[in-house]
## 1
Amino acid sequence: MTRTSTPAVLYICAARSKDAPGLAVQRAEQEGRDFADNRGLRIVEEITDLFGEPEPQRRAGWMRVRELAERGEVEVVITRWPNALSPVSELRYPELDHLGRYGAQLFFSWAPLSAMVGGGSAR
């Protein structure tokens, strides 16, 4: 990757246990890295949260994602699919708006979603 590539954070919210990450975490990591490589994105940080809390702002990892966007350290957030942000669709929109206020976009790395939404953008 070149230094001029777009900075991104890989956000994974699939783990059921921090001690034993499963296949879902491994797939999310690999898909996210491949997605970034194929689009010239430079992953500056990988953040993992335990899956289960529907409110994104109650997760330490997601709060770190927000912080990176607020400080202008990332322009792209990569996650596997919408449920990683929240299984409750109404709780996703305020987070998308928040990222957008700081010039960051959310992209989905799961192939069927990224193909359907023109590269995976949630906007």
## 2
Amino acid sequence: MGTSQPRIDELQALCHRYGPGRLPRADRYEIGAGYAAAAAAFVAAVAFAAGTFVASLIGAPLTAAHPFWSGVGLVAIPFVVPAAFVAGTLVWRSLPASTPRFGAVGGVLTAVLTYVLSLAAVFFVLALYAVAAGAPEGLEAAVVELAALTTLIGIFAVVFTTWLTIPAAIVGGLVYERANGRSSAE
């Protein structure tokens, strides 16, 4: 497999030494997968924030290279990390063991479900804020408005981050599978 094999081995060794394996119930396969997914989501969010911040410092000619996006990446952490934990746990619990390339497929499905769950959390937080701030007169209108805003946030999140989150999820899934003694290259 060339140079990618040693890198996966190095990541696996790092995960065993410093990873989330010492967290509560991490020895349970699906819970460990949730921790691994949460760690991958955290790394991706921090990498996105750092990358956009550095790009803005060096004057990258991209609209996406604005310091605003660095803040968005950091603000997303409380949404995406718990969502990734839940998504990873659910995917690893329900995906059939016979799935070819289980780690990679599980990683992609976890990333997709993480977007859905984190956007549901965003909607919930926005709804709580709207209620606390005295939502518009019609509850139905407020829900429609919040759904539209959440959809817009989701579109931006997918457009700006999938280039990073999908590969991070695939690598996270492969490393997790390998760390658990399973082959994901079947």
## 3
Amino acid sequence: MRQLFSRHIQKLRKLYGKFRESTLTTLEALDGHLFFYLDGSILLIPGFSLWFIDSENRLEYDDRIIYIVICFFIIFFIKWIILFSRTLPIYPSVLVRIYRVMGSFLFATASSLVCGIGYFIFWNAISGEGEPVLLSGPISQMEIGSGGRFMGKPHFVTFHYNERNIEVTVPSEEYATLSPGQTYSREMKLGGLGYYYNWGSKWWK
């Protein structure tokens, strides 16, 4: 492990030297060594949140997340623009400049969306009192989403509770036993930002 970390540091120093000289290649700019230090620490909490906090769905439509996403987008976009500006060729054509801007935009968009939703879910969970609440209400909608080859398809159930609709993911076995109009109950915790959650993995785990 120590030797692996040492090689990682040496590789990072070499890439940093090429960054200062503006001699990085595009592949080197996308190298995992740079990603580990530049993005890894920022994406750690969102990654944990999306995997290990089972929050109610559709919270991504909350206006507060938009502001978080915008802030992270600016950070990531500036970072990628600076990084790509130090890659070869030193005097790029207009087309290459357009590619760099488009690449920075796409990378920043993907990263900021993950961070915006992930940090919101995380803060919602840690800012709540943590007391369990029994949610119960009639099912108004049931839906099977599109999933990947290895992750399977998510099963969504929407039920009415406390004057609003709440959508959660449920196991496929439980989904098969439910029907619209039936009363659905689940024990969850109310987070500090107003959304219900539980510590634990979602349907894809």
